[in-house]
DNA sequence: CTGAAAGCGCTTACAG
DNA sequence: CTGAAAGCGCTTACAG
């Protein structure tokens, strides 16, 4: 009668089901959650009532009452980047069959967004949390501090070795590609990056260390821009780098989108790749191998990262302690035609 | 004392906050949700307690008590397809500032997944629902039937005109590109598609109608495969089509990934595009314009779709009736070099 | 401006 | 195998 009652008219509750099945609320509850602990007759009556009323259980109420949750929050910086899509898909493939539901939050590489999402998602009491990388604002860190369920970090490896994480050394990957480029004889190797998220900067640091080690480091050959990565931006970065430093003989791009753009631009400019200019990328997206020349890049196993992180979280949520706190999935430098 | 109590030790509740602030539970509640209706002194004490205890409100409890929800469920078939990523991003941009949170579900083009997601998400009592297209299983339709909050359908337009939807006529888009190809003088135009979701089939139907109208329809030139779209598959479809029907002078691909693959393959085979074979795609992904030859394709405004659908949902959730139930955002045939 | 009580829809020990 | 009661964390009318 009160306006609160009105909702019951709109959607059936468990107590409607119980009434319709002629049993108590809690028998109805049990028939649904532990069907084997209930008589066949009761179970059938309840199921019939569920069907007749179109009953859909109220997850939030269930979670609240049971002090459990089937929600997993995963926070990634971007969905436009295929790397994270692959990771999320893999996570979903292991967590969904286990009865969990994913809440996917996209921070767009903004620390404030990251914090906002963390706050919003933790307010849902997720059973587990998957975050990308270790860097976050103090406020975000504080929010995380009050969270008591398992957390697994994606993409990066903790130095501290006291956090659960699945990833690879971004610095090492940046270093490895730079080393290869030097081995191939390139001397004036530029590094071009956008977005400037922590992983990009770690790769840049890897590049820097190797270039310094070879006494070839020149800060002017580093082009870092906070803009969003895109094919068009890659083309633009190529233009800028070559205009200012025609001596450049190779460019190592922070990701494949940028490198693809550079390859397209080189073609427009009739620049011979890799003879005049070598181009390398990062991630090995599907298009990389198909380009002409085929793109030299670093292959990352994000599917593996998602899968292993999902499994680690699963075992943590079961209260087990996983064999390893930190899983290094590695990476692979793939030399193709462009460098 | 009981094991139930233990949770309170782990995370602060509103009643902990109230105790710490020396006020009633409901004053604390009010201080948080309607800060202006509370004295400055009280507000400050409550805020201090919140901070000190690291209190995070329990969204599920709030939603349950208030019979409201800040959750919006959106169900899309894929995240690997940039089209849906763009759509979701746009939706998020309008709904998030309004205080809503997105639950993103990916059905992988499987009706059973679609149904499962619908069931799982509706169990969270979302304030609104965004779904992709109209086709779904009977079971899914039944689940939807019990849902009483607003629903807006993305991508397609309803014939019935009794549903809320934002999209464009996929059939018309397929027809328009086919017409253009005929105008350009191509005669043996093949249609190649993967995934075979409803929208793909509608585009195929558009192609069919136009080809029939021109008395050029040949069922053998339609290559439909349920496989997942990818660049590699596009290359493969080109091979198959040309092997069986060398007379083909143009291929209209169901999406850009496929068309890109065909362009790459054509280059490997030294096939002149468009002289020997014209290639057209669908969606106008970023790479399309950069290819060589640049890809002829159909530009779809998924950002617009997401934005308008989000706005429509917003006004429906406010109880308003939006000016239009059905918004046609159209499409644009973009003729470039490949056809 | 502030508070006591009831209730959101469900589950969990505890009895029988 | 089944049920009455209490409680999950919060908000909502209703009083004062």
UniProtKB/TrEMBL annotation, chains A, B:
Q: Which residues form a coiled coil?
A: none
Query: Keywords of this protein's UniProt record, alphabetized?
Result: DNA-binding, Transcription, Transcription regulation
> One short Pfam family name for this protein?
Peripla_BP_3
Q: Under the GO molecular function aspect, what terms does this record hold?
A: DNA-binding transcription factor activity; transcription cis-regulatory region binding
Domain of life of the source:
Bacteria
Record bears the keyword Transcription regulation: yes
Q: Which InterPro entries match?
A: HTH_LacI (IPR000843), LacI/GalR-like_sensor (IPR046335), Lambda_DNA-bd_dom_sf (IPR010982), Peripla_BP_I (IPR028082)
Q: Which SUPFAM superfamilies match?
A: lambda repressor-like DNA-binding domains (SSF47413), Periplasmic binding protein-like I (SSF53822)
- The answer to whether the entry has keyword Transcription regulation is yes
Q: Where is the HTH lacI-type domain?
A: 12-66
Q: Which PANTHER family match?
A: HTH-TYPE TRANSCRIPTIONAL REGULATOR GNTR, LACI-RELATED TRANSCRIPTIONAL REPRESSOR
Protein's UniProt name: Transcriptional regulator, LacI family
């Amino acid at each position: 009668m009160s306006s609160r009652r009105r909702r019951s008219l709109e959607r059936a509750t468990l107590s409607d089901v119980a009434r319709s099945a002629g049993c108590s609320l809690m028998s109805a509850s049990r028939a649904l959650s532990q069907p084997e602990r209930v008589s066949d007759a009761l179970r059938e009556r309840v199921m019939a009532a569920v069907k007749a009323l179109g009953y859909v259980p109220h997850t939030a109420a269930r979670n609240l009452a049971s002090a459990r949750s089937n929600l997993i929050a995963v926070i990634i910086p971007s969905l436009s980047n295929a790397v994270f899509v692959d990771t999320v898909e893999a996570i979903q493939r292991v967590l969904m069959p286990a009865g969990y539901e994913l809440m996917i939050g996209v921070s767009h590489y903004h620390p404030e967004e990251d914090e906002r999402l963390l706050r919003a998602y933790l307010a849902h009491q997720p059973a587990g949390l998957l975050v990308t990388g270790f860097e976050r604002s103090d406020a975000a860190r504080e929010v995380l501090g009050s969270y008591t369920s398992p957390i697994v970090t994606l993409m990066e490896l903790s130095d501290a070795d006291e956090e659960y994480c699945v990833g690879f050394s971004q610095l090492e990957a940046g270093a490895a590609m730079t080393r290869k480029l030097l081995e191939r004889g390139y001397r004036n190797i530029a590094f071009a990056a956008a977005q400037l998220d922590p992983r990009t900067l770690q790769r840049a640091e890897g590049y820097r260390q190797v270039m310094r080690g070879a006494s070839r480091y020149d800060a002017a050959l580093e082009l870092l821009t906070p803009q969003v990565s895109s094919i068009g931006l890659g083309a633009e970065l190529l233009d800028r780098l070559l205009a200012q430093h025609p001596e450049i003989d190779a460019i190592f791009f922070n990701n494949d989108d940028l490198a693809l753009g550079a390859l397209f631009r080189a073609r427009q400019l009739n620049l011979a790749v890799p003879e005049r200019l070598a181009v390398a990328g990062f991630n090995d997206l599907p298009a990389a191998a198909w380009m002409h020349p085929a793109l030299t890049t670093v292959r990352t196993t994000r599917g593996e990262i998602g899968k292993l992180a999902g499994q680690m979280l699963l075992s943590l949520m079961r209260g087990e302690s996983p064999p390893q706190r930190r899983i290094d999935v590695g990476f692979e430098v793939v030399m193709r035609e462009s460098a």
